[in-house]
Design goal:
Number of helices: 3
Distance between the termini: 100 Å
Structural class: alpha+beta
Radius of gyration: 29 Å
Largest sheet: 3 strands, antiparallel
Strand content: 15-25%
C-alpha cells in the first residue's frame, strides 16, 4: 500500500466546498422557480376573482328592470357595492382598491350596450383593468 491508497481514503475540504457550492446553486435555482410559480399563481387568482366580480356585477345590473336601468346605473358611474375606496372595512371586496365602473357604448329607447370595467391594484401594486361588454334590451 503506497501513498495512492492513503490519498483515496477520505474526502478533501476542497471537494466538500465544491459540493456545497453546487447544492447552493441548485437551491437558488429551485427557489427562483418557486417564486415565479407563486407570482403566476397570484396573478391567476386575481384574474379569476376579477372575472367573478364582473359576473356578479353583471347579474346585479340584470336584476334591475330595464325601465329603471339608466337611473340605477348612470353612465360613467361606479357601482357602489363594488367600490372598495368607499366601503367600510367589514364590507370590503376581495381585491385591493377594487372599483367597477359602467360606461354606455350605445343607447336607444329599446336597448343599451354597456361595458363594465373592474380596476384594482394587483399583488405588485400596479393598477389592473378587465372589461366585460354587454347588450341589454327591453
Amino acid at each position: 500500500m503506497g501513498s495512492g491508497a492513503k490519498a483515496d481514503a477520505g474526502v478533501t475540504l476542497v471537494e466538500i466546498l465544491i459540493s456545497a457550492m453546487l447544492i447552493g446553486i441548485l437551491l437558488l435555482a429551485l427557489l427562483s422557480v418557486i417564486h415565479s410559480a407563486n407570482m403566476l399563481s397570484d396573478s391567476s387568482r386575481e384574474g379569476t376573482i376579477a372575472s367573478h366580480e364582473l359576473q356578479a356585477a353583471l347579474e346585479d345590473t340584470y336584476a334591475v328592470p330595464f325601465s329603471q336601468f339608466k337611473t340605477a346605473f348612470p353612465n360613467g358611474s361606479y357601482l357602489p357595492e363594488y367600490d372598495n375606496t368607499t366601503l367600510p372595512d367589514d364590507q370590503k371586496r376581495p381585491l385591493r382598491d377594487e372599483r367597477i365602473r359602467i360606461d354606455y357604448l350605445q343607447e336607444s329607447p329599446d336597448a343599451v350596450s354597456y361595458e363594465l370595467t373592474i380596476e384594482f391594484k394587483n399583488h405588485k401594486g400596479f393598477t389592473q383593468k378587465e372589461r366585460l361588454t354587454m347588450r341589454r334590451s327591453k
